[in-house]
Amino acid sequence: MRLRMNQGFAWLGIVVLSSMLTGCIWVGDYDDVYEPLPVPVSILYEVCYSNVDCIAGDACEELAVPADRYTDYVNAICTIGCFDDLDCPISEFNGLPGACLDHAILGGPVAGRICVERCEIDADCDVPAGFGCEIVAGERLCVPVL
Fold first, then answer.
1. Structure pTM?
2. Are 94 and 113 in contact (CB under 8 A)?
3. Whole-angstrom Cα distance, residue 71 to residue 77?
4. Three-class SS of residue 6?
5. What is the SS3 string spanning 47-80?
6. Cα torsion at 98, 103, 104, 106 (round to 10°)?
7. 100 φ, ψ to 5°?
8. What are the pLDDT digits (tens) for 90-145?
9. Per-domain residue ranges for the chain?
10. 60 close to 47: Cβ distance less than 8 angstroms
11. Range of 30-39, 75-84, 115-124, 137-146 with top mean pLDDT
């Protein structure tokens, strides 16, 4: 039995084999361009470490519940000042409207009210960062927990 080979396949085989034997490698055009990493920015109700972590207009505020246990249950979120609940935007994490609370209830300065994230269950809060859903001042809020 005689094996017949198509001429097109023979040329294809020769081209593939010769390209493998050349030892050439393909290098991208932009492999050596330095692109700095973006600065992490926290959105409203997200955990932060300083004001520079928050988007312009937001402040990084420490929260503690209850206020007399400040050193045991402390964490900080990006938030804004408010007059009432209508000033607090909806959470991008859980879709619930924010609550305006006296900062003193949350271990902050006496004069001032801030927006805090509402919740229905612990999963509505940033649990890995140390937040849980607790009842504070008659509202279910995401606050620092053990």
1. 0.67
2. no
3. 16
4. coil
5. ECCCHHHECCCCEEEEEECCHHHCCCCEEEEEEC
6. 60
7. -95, 120
8. 998 899 999 999 888 887 766 789 999 999 999 999 999 888 999 988 999 998 88
9. 51-144
10. no
11. 115-124
